[in-house]
# Entry
Amino acid sequence: MIDLVKARPGFGIYPELKSPELYKSRGVDQVKLFVEIVKKNGLEKPASLKQMPVIIQSFDEAAIRRVATELPTIPRVFLTSKDEDVTDARIKELAKFATGIAPEKFVIDRHPDMVARAHAAGLTVTSWTFRADDKEMKFPNVKAEMTHFLYDLGIDALFTNNPDQFPRR
# Structure
C-alpha cells in the first residue's frame, strides 16, 4: 500500500491503530509494527512527509502517546466519541501529545465552540463520518452538512462516505 501511494505524488495515508490493547493481549504490538514500517520506509523524515503525508489516528490514548515519543514528526490524531474529551482541560491535555483531535460529528454538534478551543491549543480538528444515508442528520443533504462543519464551524478535515458530495470552495 505504501508503495502504491508513494507512486502518486500528493497522495498520503491516514491509517488508524485499531484496538491496540486487543492485539497486545494476543501478543502483537501494533504500535511497534507501525513505527517499524514507518521508519523502514523513511516516512517519518520531513522531506518524505512533504511528498507523502502520513497522519496516524487512534481511539487509544496510550498508542497516540507512544507514537508521539517514537515518531514525533508524524502527526497524531486522537479519535473520540465522548463529550468529556472536548472540555478545556482535556483539550489542553491532548495537546501535550497529539497534534489533532477527531471527535465524532455529533460531539462537535453538541459543543461547536470546541473547534476554536482546540485550534487555540494548537490542535487540528477532524470529524467523522459524513454519509448521505445518516438517519440522524439535521441537514437537507450530506453536502449541506459537510459545508456547515467545514465552513461555519471551521473544522480542518472530515471523513465521508460520499466524496462526490464534498463541498469545494
